[in-house]
Amino acid sequence: MKIIIDAFGGDNAPIDVIKGCLLALEAYSDIELFLSGNEKILKEVAAENNIDISKIKIIDAKDIISVDEDPKEIRRSKNSSSMAVGMKALRSGVGDAFVSAGSTGALVVGSSVLVGRIHGIKRAALAPVLRTKNGCFMILDAGANLDCKPEMFVQFGIMGSVYAKRVLEINNPRIGLANVGTESSKGTESHRYGYKLLSNCKSINFIGNIEARDIFFGKCDVIVCDGLSGNMMLKTAEGTAKFLISTLKEIFTSSVFTKFSALILKDQIKKVKKTVDYREYGGAMLLGVSKPIIKAHGSSDANAFKNAINQARICVKQNIIGEMSKNIAEWMGG
Amino acid sequence: MKIIIDAFGGDNAPIDVIKGCLLALEAYSDIELFLSGNEKILKEVAAENNIDISKIKIIDAKDIISVDEDPKEIRRSKNSSSMAVGMKALRSGVGDAFVSAGSTGALVVGSSVLVGRIHGIKRAALAPVLRTKNGCFMILDAGANLDCKPEMFVQFGIMGSVYAKRVLEINNPRIGLANVGTESSKGTESHRYGYKLLSNCKSINFIGNIEARDIFFGKCDVIVCDGLSGNMMLKTAEGTAKFLISTLKEIFTSSVFTKFSALILKDQIKKVKKTVDYREYGGAMLLGVSKPIIKAHGSSDANAFKNAINQARICVKQNIIGEMSKNIAEWMGG
Hints:
Isopropylmalate Dehydrogenase, homodimer, alpha/beta, 12 strands, 10 helices, globular
């Protein structure tokens, strides 16, 4: 299978993207890789670092779209950026999946405009996976669509369910709706109507509402929500963890006694930190697009790129788009 | 001044409510206290516990509204509950402020229906105060109004600013709008229009958007948001903290070495836990009602009730309702 990677997305591009590709080619024999980006620069960087990139094909793209730019520019002034060119190649069939660590906003806009959505899907959703103590869970939408119609909750549920089953290997994944309370009467009109629609959807295992305080406690595998709620949950979790860990550090270095104790616990504390860092668990999937697109984290290193490529590889191998399309079509028909 | 307390709100009612009242009467010489609730039961409980409640006046109320009941019942079948009777007494002028640890939903509904709002205020907001490392911040709305119009953000900002100044004693409090990004173009239409309105409001120090990941880092003193975002932020922070601390505990008890180290750090870890526990910082104010109403936490003990009574006392003393009304009127006029 063929995977296209945006060579100029992320803080460590292009060198770590190149290295990640080589790691992936070593690890997986069933893939062919394409880098979208300025061919001249890529060859120069490879030569400077004594890296042989002859096994990677290059799709030349002159420009770069940065994270500071208006995402909408991907269809206008940044139409020849490495991200746009990669996505156009994806659409035209050059590749089966696309990986980028570039601007999330541009990727969301580009995926709809340059690649296209699954038939019947209103909007693509950003779906990161977070760790819990004994497993993981997915949140969608994490911020691509701030306002969501109730029908979108069901579409998110169907797509998230397929992803959890086929990629996260969770049997009969439990789908929950993020809400302010567990009773079906809770939330806005959208929540209440969404609850009904989710309950009536045959292809998913909907277990009801889930409160934000319970998301880390393994109560469900896929959390469906509007992008505003998703953004608030993800960023609050990130901030709270950062705040707690910095407070811990301060306390631990406050006396010789605590310093000594903290030294012993150092590795353990790192483990805790990792637990709540959602960046650790691969890239975020962009669900609803007609081909698999993985948003790798902006700070991805070579190994993270390798993992994101593998994530894309599994999506293709498991034909998750085919299964999502089928389940969406059935839901629309029923 | 006269403060009315719901004798049958909270997990430890009525005994801890009574004890809290006595603690408050001891500590503050400028208050008179009224307990709303079943007089017979209150006298029996006092007698059983050898407590002299002759200094507390009782406003008889036959019934109780529980947290499991539909909040709207406070205006119908639960119209003679201790909470409803207390709020009606507040409206009629028997008291200057009201404290309850009962159902938040019933308190929100009752405050609007039985007490009434400040002139011009569309909806009352729930405003808890959370600790940070070096101070605190307030979030409103924390869940009373899931959908908010942009005008409500400004009203929240005006009321939160007065509260932060007069009760939290923060000079020139910084008001932030919770949003998915810091740029003024971010968020929904409501966010963007709300941003403009907040920028144009003269009586507040609006500092722009704040992301959920930054709320614990002292960037602003009052965070204005719709109730859905507020609920998501509060509950995610609560859940993340609980999750992290339980993970820490597990790690710390995993070996003799770590157990020993953790023992030394025990008190320090408790401190961290307290930092993120918003229940610790008094009750949540119900802002927008024409008289001060404090929602004490459901698990309040005698000391927590004493603190909530003091919070109500400061609100009355500082005439925060008067200042809020004036600032709201000026904003509507300008």
